[in-house]
Amino acid sequence: MIRAFVLLLAFAGTAVAQESIVSGLSQNRVSITADFDGSEILVYGAVRRDAPPPEGGPLAVIVTVEGPETPVVVRRKGRVAGIWVNKDEVQIDSAPSFYAVVTTGPLEQILSDTENLRYGITIERVIRAIGITAEADRSGEFILALLRVRTNEDRFRLLEGRVELTDETLFRADVVLPANLIEGTYTVRLFLLRDKKVVAHQERLIGVRKVGLERFIFNLAQERPLIYGLLSLALAAVAGWGASALFRLMRG
Amino acid sequence: MQLYLPIAEVSVSAFLLLGLGGIVGFLSGMFGVGGGFLITPLLFFIGIPPAVAVATGANQVVASSISGVLAQVRRKGVDFQMGGVLLAGGIVGSAIGVWVFRLMTAAGQVDLFIQLSYVFFLGLIGAMMLRESLASMWRARVPGAPVRRSHVHSWAHRLPLKMKFRASGLYISVIPPAIIGALVGFLAAIMGVGGGFIMVPAMIYLLGMPTRVVIGTSLFQIIFVTAFTTVMHAVSSQTVDMLLALLLILGGVIGAQIGTQVGARLKAEQLRVLLSLLVLAVSIRIAVDLLVTPSELYSVAPGVLP
């Protein structure tokens, strides 16, 4: 019933849409090499209209970039017999490893709560929508803590006013991907908004992959763990013996 | 130069890793400790995930111990017989330790357990060594003061299965070293270290081994304990980062060589005072973490799907 209603809404949405997105990414593949030190993705696009711009408020654009989701445990320390120990924990089934929101202006002026709920745009919505299950009632401050910790680590970002919009038609946003990126498929979502309502949206994917030496080491560790472990030991033995021999040579 | 580590999945400065390896290698060569109790907390500190830090730290200790032990072998500082007996006990103790570690992990308090073991054992051994080595330095300064006898006949000499340990100049039962090996192996597995900082004082004070062979023999058995740990971690959790290990090792083996040379020039008592101060410092550092109110009460760790 609800699904049918949402479908109807979505259908109605596309029926009245007079504006749509044409977009591109500067790269749809990020290669993690040994000297990988972060990467910058340029998201650019234009608004396609079959008719003159509709009446209503000014156009706004929101771009989100979301990294692969993983389950996390958030723990809180408490004092037990004078020492600080992990006392309480909340399991969160899924939280993005990276999430950036880039907008043309302050979020509360361009996005309504209902639209945020529907599309899951802000990071709070993304985590709430997918993450919490049984422990919902006491998880509030744990989620805030997760947001705070990951924001401090630069994994979660909100960059308001950083989408450049020209003549309500052309837009571009630069998203910096950090150096501590994990592998997987990153989702880029683009939203066009008017009067705090989403009028068009689009999704694109970026594949982040280890390549070269990084790929080789990672695959070997996963697929042939025993050989990998022995190889690590051999490496240690050769390096240890080599340094010893070298120093003896140098000393005489 | 930034380097992306394939298993740890973080990007760190290559020079920082070389430097860390070098410092730990230096201390390991100088004192005959593997350096596991230093490298693991240091890796946590620079942002390497704990599981990767523990496993890769073990791999680095293998390399610096091999480098150190070769230098010791040349000056006949390794008692292979004693090392073998300690190792045999160590493997049994280590197996029991791994089992207890798994129980603690299931109970969800493994971090606290590790921290408390560090504070307790490092603190206890550091204090004991400091007291003893200061006392013997004092005796050396005062002429005519009673000298501690190197061979004290005790209960250890009345046990069966006696064996001649030529390099140590001892004729004692294999039971005490086997038990000490097992205890150290057990603690090593729980704390994720090689156990040199416990082994060295145990060999000096409990077995009465001459200081000359203590460091080499300790390194000798640490090689095997940490090699075992490395392979276990690689197989069970895939957390050994080869690139991280390589950089730590490069720094570490060079540091270990320099450390061995410096250590050979210092007097045994001075060496023991320095090692005890280092051990105490690490213990106090971890104790402070447990006692001071943390700035962030919450921590985020990777979870598992239910």
What are the key terms here?
heterodimer, A: about 250 residues, Immunoglobulin-like, 2 domains, four-stranded antiparallel β-sheet, B: about 300 residues, mainly alpha, two-stranded antiparallel sheet, 10 helices, about 70% helix, about 5% strand
Can you offer a commentary on this structure?
- The complex is a heterodimer of chains A (252) and B (306).
- By secondary structure, chain A is an alpha+beta fold.
- Chain A folds into 2 domains: 19-210, Sandwich (Immunoglobulin-like); 211-252.
- Helix content of chain A is 34%, strand content 40%.
- Chain A has a 6-stranded mixed β-sheet.
- In chain A, a hairpin with a 2-residue loop joins β5 and β6.
- The radius of gyration of chain A is 24 Å and the shape is extended.
- Residues 11-15 of chain A have low confidence and may be disordered.
- Chain B is mainly α and 306 residues long.
- In chain B, β1 and β2 form a beta hairpin.
- In chain B, α4 packs parallel to α6.
- In chain B, the strands form 2 sheets. Chain B has a two-stranded antiparallel ribbon with strand order 1-2.
- The longest helix of chain B has 32 residues, at 110-141.
- Chain B has helices spanning 14-31, 36-45, 50-74, 80-107, 110-141, 175-191, 196-206, 211-237, 242-265, 268-291; strands at residues 2-4, 11-13, 162-165, 170-173, 298-302.
- Chains A and B meet through β5, β6, α5, α6 and α7 of A and β1, α3, α8, α9 and α10 of B.
